[in-house]
Amino acid sequence: MTAAGAVTLEADGERLACTVVEPAGQARPGTALLMHGAGSSGKHRCLPLAQELAAAGCRSVVFDFAGHGTSTGELGQLSLARRSRQARAVLERYAPDGPLLLVGFSMSGQTVADLLGEPDIGGRVRAVALGAPAAYAREVRELPFAEPEFTAVLRTPGSWRSSTAFEALAAFGGRAVLVLPESDEVIPAEVTDALDAALRTRAAYTRLVLPGADHQLGGWLSTHPEHRALVAAALLGAGG
Known about the structure:
Blueprint: E1 2-11, E2 14-22, E3 31-35, H1 47-55, E4 59-63, H2 80-94, E5 100-105, H3 108-116, H4 119-122, E6 125-131, H5 148-154, H6 165-171, E7 175-181, H7 189-199, E8 204-210, H8 217-223, H9 225-236
Parallel strand pairs: 3-4, 3-5, 5-6, 6-7, 7-8
Antiparallel strand pairs: 1-2, 2-4
Helix pairs in contact: 1-9, 2-3, 3-6, 6-7
């Protein structure tokens, strides 16, 4: 298993830091794109799972969204729409064709759904894994995170119900894994329940609850190899 470090990509007016993890042995078809959550998160939290997938033969790519890790940009100027554009740019550079597996933690649960809604990308996706995923009102999609309106909408009870994530995930017919912590202090249970229901509509669905874990699932998987192996196996499919 080898990793290409310090790879950069110019996209969306920023320089994005990426890591491509190649399998050392026989490779499976396709590429997994792993996307971290918000706040202080970064690709470092996704790298152990990417390495787990590569060990199983799946080429994997992780990157820092603008304003995170070693990518350029200001976090407050990032938006959900920009996150989708940046993820798309990474796919166009490092996985321009072939099957895709999409992994998104927390805020990137919405990004996975956004990518599924783009026909040229969604049609290539064979499996998704969502770790403690969030869903956001469609009206905040273009708003920078630092805008007061972004926070105001998020704090409006039930605003998440207008999210495009539910329709996109309900239409997905591939393999889907919902990974949840034993206790989540960030995502309301009703959001999780709605995402669960959407994923059950058409997908070949697996729900995993990790004992002892909290919302920071990327960090948890980094230090719990038994859970990391469980998630990788579910995403790749038994014998698949």
